[in-house]
From TrEMBL:
InterPro entries: EXOC6/Sec15 (IPR007225), EXOC6/Sec15_C (IPR046361), EXOC6/Sec15_C_dom1 (IPR042045), EXOC6_Sec15_N (IPR048359), EXOC6PINT-1/Sec15/Tip20_C_dom2 (IPR042044). Pfam families: EXOC6_Sec15_N (PF20651), Sec15_C (PF04091). Belongs to the SEC15 family. It comes from Acipenser oxyrinchus oxyrinchus. GO terms for biological process: Golgi to plasma membrane transport; intracellular protein transport; vesicle tethering involved in exocytosis. This is Exocyst complex component. Residues 81-115 form a coiled coil. Residues 44-213 form the Exocyst complex component EXOC6/Sec15 N-terminal domain. Keywords: Coiled coil, Exocytosis, Transport. Signal peptide: none annotated. Component of the exocyst complex involved in the docking of exocytic vesicles with fusion sites on the plasma membrane.
Length: 802
């Protein structure tokens, strides 16, 4: 039973081996080797192999003839195969020889295809990198060309667009790392350009200001020409309508005509083109820097820095030089710098609203205005030349008009000009003080001689004088006044012109100009001219002839004041009847000078009389007087005659007053001569001589040296002396003592004190005249009478005092 199972198992294995692929026979054989029937299986396997060999032999025997035929055919095929092999070998060698070039070409093609792929890849990579490099190169070129704002834009494109496309490359990473440095470099370079710009405008401020002021001057000249043409046209129409013809058109002596010619000259000189601020300074750096800082988010930093630097520059510009007041160029340079500074500010304000703020500019202008006004007040106070002050005023007006044209308020400058106007008036007054002194010192104080009609018309043209009687007289003839009258009158007009020049272009009304001119002229008359006249009148070496001529001159100058009024009215077009019009004080000025001269004449005449009286040499102890007046008195009377002859041109009251004053002073001085303390004794002979001198004085008074006295009015000057002498010579004491105090007293003008003093001197003379007089009865009686009169006089004096 076991052998049957083993035989069945071996049979199964054999069938499995026969039917199974040799690759999978391993497990089957393993099962054989693992079993106990290995030898039996081998026997079975040998038997099966023998069976298959018998089957193969049978089949071979069955197909043997076909096999032989196949072998025969195979042998035949072998020969042909050999031939074919040789042919194939030959063909292969030929093919190999022919294929070498192809292989080489294929290798080359392979290399070309490889290069083409590499080139394509390189082109692709370069298409990413080249824009980056181009933009970076463009950035470098822009930075080298100092085009910082485009460089900043290029850097922004490089960072945001081109570098992200090629960020895998190392050089792009390096570029990315350098971008902050480049931004900082652009920022620093733009700031450097801004500093250069600030330095440039600081250097060019003066030139910019000069250019702006030239433009303003040209515009003002054109406006003045147009307005003058309009005024001239309207004036001509008005004159034509009024029928005045060309009579007034020929009058070109007004200062306005001079001003017109000056304007035309300025226009001719400055006809060339004037550059503007933008033509002198390149403003692009400040805008580039502003845009760069704006893009970088640092606009506030830029604005603060810019304004801080401009404020520093403003302080430098507003600081005047210490010697600015010495020349007009100093002021001009100062104004040019200020105008240039604010022209730049105005240009920036109106080209970029963000950088120049109106509030900032207004604050800066207020600072500049206050400092400018303070500097002008300080430096103008040092000016003593009226021409320099006038040029300074014109420069300030041009300065104000220039800045006003740019929209800056300049009212404070015109207010300050009114202050300078007062200073200008004071300087003019000082200048005219010198002018008047020179005129008065150089004058000969003699009437102006006229030898021809031409000289007469020339003098009459300088001074408004009309005298029909003088015109009828033949040549040569004389004006009543001396040369200082037309010269002073001309200088008064020159002073008015000088005042008018300062008031031009100050935007003042005609009434204000008229008031200013009149006030200044009043100061000139009441202070300057008056002081000069007073000094001339009161100086030591002035003579009576000069004083008389001064009175005549001041009389004519006083009469000319109304012509000065008309002159001022004509140049200001303000009628004198205007309520606000200031009146000239010329009348009172010349009246005061004339009164002073009159007083000086009286004083001078009295001093001359005193000088003659000092020559008096009386013999007070003379026994009897001579029949002729004293020599000194004769000379004095002759002097008075010649002096009062000169007084014929004076007003009547002045001559009469001078004559009366001289006679009174002579009478008083003669009386004082009698009563002098040094004269201890007076004889009757001396008194008689003195009486003869007094009679000579009375004869002079009675002769009427000056016309206009009624009756013996001039004799009243000697009445005190006459009554005193009559009392002593006639020895009429009884009448004097009896009628003393009555209105009808013969010796009403004799003072008892005067009589007592003179009597005391005669009493002493009577006592000492003769040692034996006490033994003569007549002398003793006379002495007793003198003593009695002395006692009675003392009684009268005591009674009068009580």
């Amino acid at each position: 039973m076991a052998s049957l199972e083993a035989a069945a198992e071996n049979e199964r294995i054999l069938r499995e081996i026969e039917s199974t692929d040799t690759n999978c026979i391993g497990p089957t054989l393993r099962s054989v080797y693992d079993g106990q029937e290995h030898g039996h299986f081998m026997e079975k396997l040998e038997g099966r192999i023998r069976n298959h060999d018998r089957d193969i032999e049978k089949m071979c025997n069955f197909h043997y003839q076909g096999f032989v035929d196949s072998i025969t055919e195979l042998l035949k095929v072998r020969g042909e195969a050999q031939k074919l092999k040789s042919q194939v070998t030959d063909t292969n060698s030929k093919l190999q020889d022919a294929g070498k070039e192809l292989v080489n070409s294929m290798e080359e093609l392979k290399q070309c295809r490889l290069q083409q792929r590499n080139i394509a890849a390189t082109v692709d990579k370069l298409s990413l990198c080249l824009p980056v490099l181009e933009m970076y190169n463009k950035l470098q070129e822009q930075m080298q060309a100092r085009r910082h704002y485009p460089a900043l834009k290029t850097l922004e494109q490089l960072e945001l667009i081109y570098l992200p496309r090629a960020n895998q490359y190392r050089f792009c990473k390096i570029m990315s790392e350098n971008i902050p440095k480049l931004r900082s470099e652009i920022k620093d370079l733009s700031m450097s350009d801004l500093k250069d710009f600030l330095e440039s405008i600081r250097k060019h401020s003066e030139k910019i200001g000069e250019t702006a002021m030239k433009q303003a001057q040209q515009q003002r000249s054109l406006d003045s020409i147009v307005s003058n043409q309009q005024r001239a046209g309207s004036a001509r129409r008005a004159r034509k309508e009024a029928g005045l013809g060309t009579e007034l058109e020929g009058d070109s002596s007004s200062p306005m005509s001079e001003q017109d010619s000056g304007i035309l000259d300025v226009e001719d000189e400055e006809d060339e083109e004037v550059l503007g601020a933008q033509d002198l300074v390149d403003f692009s750096p400040v805008y580039r820097c502003l845009h760069i800082y704006t893009v970088l988010g640092a606009r506030d930093t830029f604005e603060n820095y810019y304004r801080k630097q401009r404020r520093k520059q403003a302080r430098l510009v507003l600081q005047p030089h210490s010697n600015m007041h010495e020349t007009l160029e100093g002021y001009r340079k100062y104004f040019n710098q200020i105008v240039g500074f604010f022209v730049v500010e105005d240009h920036i304000l109106h080209t970029d609203a963000g950088l120049g703020e109106p509030a900032y500019e207004t604050k800066l202008w207020d600072l500049a205005l206050s400092k400018t006004i303070a500097a002008l007040r300080t430096h103008s106070s040092y000016c003593t030349d009226p021409n320099l002050v006038l040029d300074l005023k014109n420069l300030i007006v041009l300065f104000a008009d220039t800045l006003q044209g740019y929209g800056f308020p300049v009212n404070q400058l015109f207010d300050m000009l009114l202050e300078i106007r007062d200073q200008y008036s004071e300087i003019l007054l000082k200048k005219w003080t010198v002018v008047f002194r020179q005129i008065l010192d150089q004058d000969n104080y003699s009437p102006i001689p006229v030898v021809s009609e031409e000289v007469y018309r020339k003098t009459a043209g300088q001074f408004p004088f009309q005298d029909p009687e003088l015109e009828k007289l033949p040549f040569p003839k004389k004006f009543p006044f001396s040369e200082f009258v037309p010269k002073v009158y001309s200088q008064l007009k020159e002073f008015i012109y000088a005042c008018l020049k300062f008031s031009e272009d100050l935007h003042l009304s005609s009434t204000e100009i008229d008031d200013m001119i009149r006030k200044s002229t009043n100061l000139l008359l009441a202070r300057t001219l008056s002081n000069c006249l007073q000094n001339v009148i009161k100086r030591r070496n002035v003579g009576l002839t000069e004083l008389v001529q001064i009175i005549i001159n001041t009389t004519h100058l006083e009469q000319s004041c109304r012509y000065l009024e008309e002159f001022i009215t004509n140049i200001t077009n303000v009628p004198p009847e205007t309520v606000q019009a200031t009146k000239l004080y010329g009348t009172s000025t010349f009246k005061d000078a004339r009164h002073t001269a009159e007083e000086e004449i009286y004083t001078n005449l009295n001093q001359k009389i005193d000088q003659f009286l000092q020559l008096a040499d009386y013999d007070w102890m003379a026994a009897q007087g001579s029949c002729e007046p004293s020599d000194y008195l004769s000379d004095l009377i002759a002097f008075l005659y010649s002096t009062f002859t000169v007084f014929t041109h004076l007003p009547g009251k002045v001559a009469q007053t001078a004559c009366m004053s001289a006679c009174k002073h002579l009478s008083t001085s003669l009386l004082q001569l009698l009563l002098e303390s040094e004269v201890k004794q007076i004889s009757m002979g001396a008194l008689q001589q003195f009486n003869i001198d007094v009679k000579e004085c009375e004869r002079f008074a009675r002769s009427g040296p000056v016309p206009g006295f009624q009756g013996d009015t001039l004799l009243l000057a000697f009445i005190d002396l006459r009554q005193l002498l009559d009392l002593f010579i006639q020895w009429d004491w009884s009448t004097y003592l009896a009628d003393y105090g009555r209105p009808t007293c013969k010796y009403l003008r004799v003072n008892p004190n005067t009589a007592l003093a003179l009597l005391e001197k005669m009493k002493d003379t009577s006592r000492k005249n003769n040692m034996f007089a006490q033994f003569r009865k007549n002398e003793r009686d006379k002495q007793k009478l003198i003593d009695t009169v002395v006692k009675q006089l003392r009684s009268l004096i005591n009674a009068h005092h009580s």
